[in-house]
Design a protein that fits this description.
2 helices, globular, alpha+beta, 5-stranded mixed beta sheet
Length: 95
């Protein structure tokens, strides 16, 4: 599945919380820029062809978890399941 189609389907399911995405070759997947919650979610390339419902549930919980706001999140595949990790806090975008 193409990144554009993948992100479009995710965005629809997440009530348009995805503002934009990047998928440069060196990213190893795609980067989702969110309207609220964590400002950036890195999605590993191997996740794209996995169960979208599982990813949507994980992203929904990430968006709603206030302890993750402002953090950089990575979602990857480990032992045939999704794994989420949070890294250092990033500066929130200025509005």
């Amino acid at each position: 599945m193409s990144y554009g189609k993948f992100v479009e389907e995710l965005s629809r399911s997440l009530k348009h919380h995805i503002l934009a995405y990047d998928n440069l070759p060196d990213h190893g997947g795609c980067i989702l820029h969110l309207r609220e919650g964590p400002t950036r979610v890195d999605v590993d390339v191997h996740v794209i062809d996995l169960n979208k419902e599982e990813l949507i549930k994980m992203l929904s919980s990430v968006i709603n978890d206030t302890s993750l706001h402002g953090k950089r999140i990575k979602i990857s595949l480990q032992n045939k399941g999704l794994v989420m990790s949070a890294s250092v806090t990033v500066e929130a975008p200025k509005r």
